[in-house]
Amino acid sequence: MTVPMRLILTDALLSTIEIKMSSQSTQLMKVSDVCKYLNFTKSTIYRLVENRKIPFYRICGRLRFKQTDLDEFLNQCRKNAIVNQ
């Protein structure tokens, strides 16, 4: 049984995309990246860091963030809707 070349290329491409996506979630983000990701101002990010409300890393005096940590932070801030019965 032969596998079509198109299927092989598609599987290889999907594997490459999955690897890139998984490595992106472990990359550290700068404050400016976090501002874009969360749609917050820099002062809001700095205030959240100062009050220890958002997870962060301080590397050589510079703030860095993991996207997975930010996603968890957002999930913790989530409020459920009230359903009227």
Distance between the termini: 58 Å
Q: What is the name of the CATH architecture of the domain at 27-77? A: Orthogonal Bundle
Low-confidence stretches: none
Structural class, by secondary structure, is mainly alpha
**How many beta-strand elements?**
3
Contiguous helical run count: 4
Q: What proportion of the residues is helical, as a percent range? A: 55-70%
Q: Write out the strand line-up for the largest beta sheet, numbering strands in chain order.
A: 1-3-2
Radius of gyration: 19 Å
- The topology string of helices and strands comes to HEHHEEH
> How would you sum up the global shape?
flat
**What's the overall average pLDDT, rounded?**
82
The largest β sheet comes out as:
3 strands, antiparallel
Q: If you had to describe this structure to a student in words, what would you say it looks like?
A:
With 85 residues, this protein is mostly helical. 59% of the residues lie in helices and 12% in strands. A three-stranded antiparallel beta sheet has the order 1-3-2. Strand 2 and strand 3 form a beta hairpin. The model has no long low-confidence stretch (mean pLDDT 82).
What labels describe this entry?
85 residues, mainly alpha, Arc Repressor Mutant, subunit A, 3-stranded antiparallel β-sheet, 4 helices, 12% strand
Write the layout of secondary structure elements.
Elements: H1 5-26, E1 28-29, H2 31-38, H3 42-50, E2 57-59, E3 62-66, H4 67-77
Antiparallel strand pairs: 1-3, 2-3
In short:
The chain is mainly alpha-helical and 85 residues long. Helices cover 59% and strands 12% of the residues.
